[in-house]
Amino acid sequence: MTDREAFVDAAVRSLRELSAEPANAEKHVRVLQSMAPFPRQAQSSLLDRWTECFACGRSRASAVDHLAQGLGSHAQRVAILRLAARRMVEASWIEEAVRAFHHSCEPLGPAAFDPFPLRDKFAALSDDYDENFWSGETARQFHGFLEDSISFSPDWAALDAGCGTGLVGEWLAPRVARLDGIDLSADMLARARTKEIYDSLSEGDITGELEDPGRRGSYHLVVCNWCLFYIPDLSGFFRAAAGALMPGGRLALSVYPCLDDADVMRKEAETEFTHSRRYLRAKAHENALTEEQMEIRLSCAHPGFYAVFANRAS
Fold it and tell me: Which among 241, 246, 275, 243 is positioned nearest to 258, based on CA atoms?
């Protein structure tokens, strides 16, 4: 028996009699953590075995629901569901991953976009933002999606909405003729400016800046990565982004996900939000945008919806 086979065997043995009861919360965490070193096929096999242990004959989706219900209000509930969601994306259980993540969130309640705490947050993060692993990882994840989904033309004009320090812009700049950036944080923009990759940089909330009359019909591509989860209502953003696109132009974005049972949810105990595919499609339709691509990939350490919408206007 190889070391990996022995490790898998030990992991499977640890799953015996593992139910969805709150008393087993720590065991669930350890089991899910132990899956990390394995390749996709092995993770999928271990996830199958894991769900069997508490599913009582249910389907994968029903097993996830059963786990969430069984954990109830246990302190480890959110951590378990989000860790499970990550493992599921890695093992190509993409729909089950969204279901697990959905159960880690809570109903929206009263919520509005408040830019002021974000300015303070990113002022504090700006000095070493580029050196943070997760900042770079989310940019790399989005780069991969863009590369797989869009055929770039060297004469394009592009807008990086929520550009931060320019981690996405660094990848975009060599692929387009013009690149503009928008961000809420002056401190993040100061870092982006030193890279000399943007033709213009503007400070402000992305919706307000996109609505500037000078941007109307100006871009072949608008991208927005890892910042829409701060905005519960994306109506204004979709309207403004659609207005900034040329006919045939594309909007590429990422959001944290929830099921179509809800339009928007709140990440539990956080001022961050999730959006459903139904909601994204409705906002796109309202603004004459056609879906070209919608898929589930990792976004930071969580599942995310990545989408491309095209401007139908002639």
Answer: 275
